[in-house]
């Protein structure tokens, strides 16, 4: 090939390159644009995601704030309630302190009163014992045992003064009740060196009679002679009726009983 032909061939080849170059450049520019658009879309999507996450966090913070506000209000109410409770407790404590002071004062006075009450109770026990000895001899074992129990109690250190006084007064009340009640009981009677079981009938302290279980014998207590006096058979049915009334086996009714005749004080003088 000659030089001129070579020049023409190169020229043709170069021209062809010039002809096909623009489409390649355009394709590359399109790819770049698509890539940039994709990147922009990705960035925008990431922005949307971040905005959604931020909004979610804002909502969470708002909910937490509402919870905290409710808790705060609840705590304020609790504080108000505690303040009222503490105020009430302070009032109670003040009242209890006053009560304690009063009790301590009473205890100090009780100790001094106890020193004077104890001798009084001992004299009361002596008096009731003497009274039983001089009284109509009914329920002697029971009444004597009660007095012995009082003396034993008075010597005990584990019984309070108040309890001692209560039991002494209870014994006095029991003795007082005997004077306004009727009673029937069965016990032993020793008379003329002979012991027998009989039914006793007590009308207060004005009459004390007995009757044998077979109703063969009756008698009454004479307070002046301090002895038992026999009764005739006329009182047998009356005593029987009185025993039934006292035992609540019959309705209350009038009963004829032997009584000591009253003594005119003027005649004694």
Protein architecture, described:
By secondary structure, the protein is of the alpha+beta class. It has a domain at 181-260. The protein has helices at 3-134, 140-154, 161-178, 236-246, 265-268, and strands at 182-191, 194-203, 207-212, 218-222, 227-230. The chain has a 5-stranded antiparallel sheet with strand order 1-2-3-4-5, covered by helices on one side. Strand 1 (182-191) and strand 2 form a beta hairpin. Helix 1 packs across helix 2 and helix 1 crosses helix 3 (161-178). The protein is rod-shaped. Residues 7-21 and 265-269 have low confidence and may be disordered.
Short description:
67% of the residues lie in helices and 13% in strands. It has 269 residues and is an alpha+beta fold.
Layout of helices and strands:
Elements: H1 3-134, H2 140-154, H3 161-178, E1 182-191, E2 194-203, E3 207-212, E4 218-222, E5 227-230, H4 236-246, H5 265-268
Antiparallel strand pairs: 1-2, 2-3, 3-4, 4-5
Helix pairs in contact: 1-2, 1-3, 2-3
Considering the chains and any ligands shown, give keywords for the structure.
rod-shaped, about 270 residues, 5 helices, single chain, 5-stranded antiparallel beta sheet, alpha+beta
């Amino acid at each position: 090939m000659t030089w001129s032909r070579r020049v023409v061939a190169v020229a043709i080849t170069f021209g062809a390159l010039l002809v096909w170059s623009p489409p390649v450049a355009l394709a590359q520019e399109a790819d770049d644009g698509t890539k940039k658009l994709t990147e922009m879309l990705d960035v925008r999507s990431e922005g949307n995601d971040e905005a959604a996450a931020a909004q979610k966090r804002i909502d969470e913070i708002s909910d937490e704030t509402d919870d905290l506000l409710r808790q705060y209000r609840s705590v304020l109410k609790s504080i108000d309630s505690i303040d009222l409770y503490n105020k009430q407790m302070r009032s109670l404590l003040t009242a209890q302190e006053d009560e304690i002071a009063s009790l301590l004062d009473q205890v100090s006075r009780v100790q001094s009163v106890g020193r004077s009450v104890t001798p009084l109770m001992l004299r009361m026990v002596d008096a009731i014992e003497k009274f039983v000895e001089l009284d109509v001899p009914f329920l002697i074992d029971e009444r004597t045992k009660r007095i012995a129990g009082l003396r034993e109690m008075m010597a005990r250190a584990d019984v309070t003064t108040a309890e001692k006084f209560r039991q002494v007064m209870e014994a006095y009340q029991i003795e007082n009740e005997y004077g306004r009640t009727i009673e029937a009981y069965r016990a032993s009677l020793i008379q003329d060196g002979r012991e027998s079981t009989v039914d006793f009938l007590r009308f207060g302290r004005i009459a004390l009679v007995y009757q044998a279980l077979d109703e063969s014998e009756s008698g009454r207590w004479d307070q002046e002679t301090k002895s038992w006096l026999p009764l005739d058979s006329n009182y047998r049915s009356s005593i029987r009726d009185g025993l039934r009334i006292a035992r609540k086996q019959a309705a209350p009714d009038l009963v004829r009983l032997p009584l000591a005749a009253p003594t005119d004080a003027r005649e004694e003088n």
